[in-house]
Amino acid sequence: MTTRRYSAAEPVGQLVEELHKLPGIGPKTAQRLTYHLVRMPRDDAMRLADAILAVKDRIVLCSQCYNITETDPCPLCSGPTRDRTRICVVEEALDVVALERTGVYTGLYHVLHGVISPMNGIGPDELKIRPLLDRLKGGGVREVILATNPNLEGEATSMYVHNLIAPLGVKVTRPARGLPVGGDLEYADEVTLSRAIEGRQSM
Amino acid sequence: MTTRRYSAAEPVGQLVEELHKLPGIGPKTAQRLTYHLVRMPRDDAMRLADAILAVKDRIVLCSQCYNITETDPCPLCSGPTRDRTRICVVEEALDVVALERTGVYTGLYHVLHGVISPMNGIGPDELKIRPLLDRLKGGGVREVILATNPNLEGEATSMYVHNLIAPLGVKVTRPARGLPVGGDLEYADEVTLSRAIEGRQSM
Question: Which of A158, B27, B121, B146 has an alpha carbon 20 to 30 Å from A110's alpha carbon atom?
Answer without folding.
Answer: B27
